Amino acid sequence: HEYHASVIANTRESVKAEPDAGRVVGIALDTKGPEIRTGLLEGDDDITITQDDIVTVTTDPAFKEKCTIDNLYMDYENLPKVLSVGSRIYVDDGLLSLTVLEINSEGEYATIKTR
Questions:
Q1: Dihedral angle over CA of 58, 46, 100, 97, nearest 10
Q2: Contact 66/39 with Cβ under 8 angstroms?
Q3: pTM above the 0.90 mark?
Q4: What phi, psi does 7 have (nearest 5°)?
Q5: Among the listed residues 71, 36, 56, the one whose alpha carbon sits nearest the alpha carbon of residue 103
Q6: What is the Cα–Cα distance from 65 to 61, expressed in whole angstroms?
Q7: Is the dihedral of CA 63, 68, 69, 74 positive or negative?
Q8: In the structure, what pLDDT confidence band is assigned to residue 65 with cuts at 50, 70 and 90?
Q9: pLDDT confidence bin for 107, thresholds 50/70/90
Q10: Of 3, 82, 68, 10, which is closest to residue 38 (Cα–Cα)?
Q11: What mean pLDDT, rounded, does the chain reach?
């Protein structure tokens, strides 16, 4: 947060230095969300997710070391609480975008179906 504060302070100083420039200055800062990790794949196989595939994303630690295309573990326990149908999950810095189709909650775990 220190970096963001310094950017805001520097921008304000710049505007004060030349108030008659007639410019409007907006500030957009990239605030990163939580670092979410996926589990380990079952066996040595890679999985390929293509457009219109439906995969299940789960926070159930039983899948932490045996992910498949059918059950992809993500370690952010609150994931089902912060998402809603239509939300997007960006994987690998946005290389893969998953759209939430359904949230199914049972007990303390949830399964999120994405396309």
A1: 140
A2: yes
A3: no
A4: -65, -45
A5: 56
A6: 8
A7: positive
A8: very high
A9: low
A10: 68
A11: 82
Q: Which amino acid is at 5?
A: A
Structure tokens at 81: 């609480």
**Residue 88 to residue 92: CA distance in whole angstroms:** 13
Compute the distance between CA of residue 61 and CA of residue 51 in angstroms, rounded to an integer: 26
CA 70 to chain CA centroid, Å, is 20
Are 21 and 57 contacting, i.e. CB atoms less than 8 angstroms apart?
Answer: no
User: Strand ranges (DSSP E) for the chain?
Assistant: 55-58, 72-73, 88-91, 96-106, 109-114
Q: Are strands 55-58 and 109-114 parallel, antiparallel or unpaired?
A: antiparallel
Residue with tokens 């949230």: 103
List the Cα angle 9/10/12 in 5-degree steps: 65
State how far the Cα of 93 lies from the Cα of 33, in Å rounded to an integer: 11
pLDDT tens across 18-29, in order?
Answer: 877 777 888 887
| Total Cβ atoms within 10 A of residue 104 | 12
